[in-house]
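Submission checklist for the structure archive. All mandatory fields must be present; incomplete records are returned to the submitter.

[x] Identifier: MTX1 protein
[x] Organism: Ptilonorhynchus violaceus
[x] Residue count: 152
[x] Sequence attached
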Amino acid sequence: QLYREARECLTLLSQRLGSQKFFFGDSPASLDALVFSRLAPLLKAKLPNGKLQQHLKSLQNLCNYCTSILSLYFPWDGGESHPPPHPTGLGRPVPPEEDPHKRRNQLLSVLVGLVAMLGYAFLSGIVSIQRSGGVGPAGRQPITLEEEEEEE
């Protein structure tokens, strides 16, 4: 039933779009962004069950709609041979496997995460440090588990 309703929804979207470039004329609206965000992955992704994808591909105006938006707003992904310039302005981005600082960055990420978790554990009281001198804060003796049970 879910596939049937999804196919019906795609058919209705196709009918509503008709031969227009966007749903509300010649310029995109928020509905276009929402519809594209659902259709593009369905159209481009490799799916284990391709029933819905096949139905979408049979609706030529929706396929053209997605292709048009991809080439208009994502030209480096829609068939142009060059990716967008790297934000650093140094040419092409370095692929992750060629990144000379990959190991260092991974190690720093792990260390920052570990420090954050330990800090949270200490500040929330999950973990506490007791001195072996036996005297806790303000001169009080720490209560052991047996003494705590006896007090109850």
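[x] Structure attached
Curator remark: The helical segments are 2-17, 30-44, 51-58, 60-73, 102-124, 145-151. The CA atoms of residues 103 and 109 lie 10 Å apart.
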